[in-house]
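__Protein archive entry__

___
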Amino acid sequence: MLPTPFRTAVAIVTLAACGHSDRPARASAGTVATSTTPLALPHDSISDRADRGRIAGDSAASVWFVMASDFECPFCKQFHDESFDQIMQKYVNTGKIRLAYVNYPLSIHPNAVPAAEAAMCASVQNKFWPMHNALFATQGKWESLPNPNVVFDSLAASVGVDSAAYHTCVSKHLTLPLIQADHDRAAQSGVNSTPTFFIGGRMIAGAAPYATFEAAIDSALAHAHSGSSKPAL
């Protein structure tokens, strides 16, 4: 489970971000909590599995790298294309940090919530990261479609999910409460654009260059080794 709450020591704001002043997208009215509702993550087998599936790295790592992101945001894709793999290879796969994805779909992106549901329903089957990569790789194909679910179904099948269970999850919106809880927590932690990152006690807003993330991670690791680190969230 993701640690809580978000804690921010330093904010770095760049221009490469989506929706600085836009409210996060919401699904059908009344089906999920409003942003003024006390935050409580749903605890059921679906939500718990979806939550665990979007966390990567060694459970013993003391430094968290948390990204609040929107699958339809072009700057989130920019970060994914330019920096994600390098961070995974250098820091996550080597056990130095833990990485987690937090959903923050924006209202300016009509397919952001369906994409988040597709990813989180794949996460229920421990296929979040392959689906995450597939969604960003094909963003240009589905971002403007009236109904992107055919593309999402194909992507899910390609990463090896059980199609029947996946379709049930998506059609019944079983991960929607977790997605709503994600962006409510993020909003209360100061997120108002995507992508936004929490690294140790530091917040970076926008698709900064890889060197910025590398420096922030190295600093967080140094503080962790000295016993003065702060949680990412």
